[in-house]
């Protein structure tokens, strides 16, 4: 699996408007997710549980064809970290996205 390119602000806004949830952001690997969570629309950091990652890496090492790449690690991320933006509606989230500082790697 190859690293991903940044989605960019404009494309992320389009994906929100198209209801393409969840929306992964981050390059070279997803580190942020745009989600609908607890009745809100959020841009939230993906957090990987260290114990879960270690167990998965160990299991991969014992597999018939061992493979553990960064993509496997980042795939374990869950939207439980820092909330970068939060809104009650998609329209409100789009407005926030249009004015917030947008990291280049998103």
Describe this structure in words.
This protein is of the alpha+beta class and 106 residues long. The protein has one domain. Helix content is 36%, strand content 25%. The chain is built from four helices and four strands. Strands 1-2-3-4 form a four-stranded antiparallel beta sheet. Helix 1 runs antiparallel to helix 4. The longest helix is centred in the middle third of the chain and has 13 residues, at 50-62. The mean pLDDT is 92.
Would you report the number of β strands? 4
Helix content: 25-40%
Instruction: Please state how the strands of the largest beta sheet are arranged side by side.
Output: 1-2-3-4
Overall geometry: elongated
SSE series: HEEEHHEH
β-strand percent reads 25-35%
Total discrete domains: 1
End-to-end gap? 18 Å
Secondary-structure-derived class: alpha+beta
Oligomer: single chain
Please give the radius of gyration in angstroms.
15 Å
Describe the largest sheet: 4 strands, antiparallel
The count of helical stretches stands at 4
What are the low-pLDDT stretches, counting only 5+ consecutive residues below 50?
A: none
Round the mean pLDDT to the nearest integer and report it.
92
């Amino acid at each position: 699996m190859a690293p991903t390119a940044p989605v960019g602000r404009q494309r992320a806004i389009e994906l929100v408007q198209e209801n393409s949830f969840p929306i992964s952001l981050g390059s070279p690997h997803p580190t942020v997710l745009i989600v609908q969570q607890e009745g809100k629309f959020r841009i939230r950091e993906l957090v990987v549980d260290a114990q879960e990652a270690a167990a998965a890496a160990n299991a991969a090492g014992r597999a018939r064809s061992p493979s553990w790449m960064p993509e496997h690690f980042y795939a374990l991320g869950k939207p439980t970290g820092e909330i970068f933006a939060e809104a009650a509606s998609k329209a409100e989230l789009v407005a926030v996205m249009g004015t917030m500082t947008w990291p280049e790697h998103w």
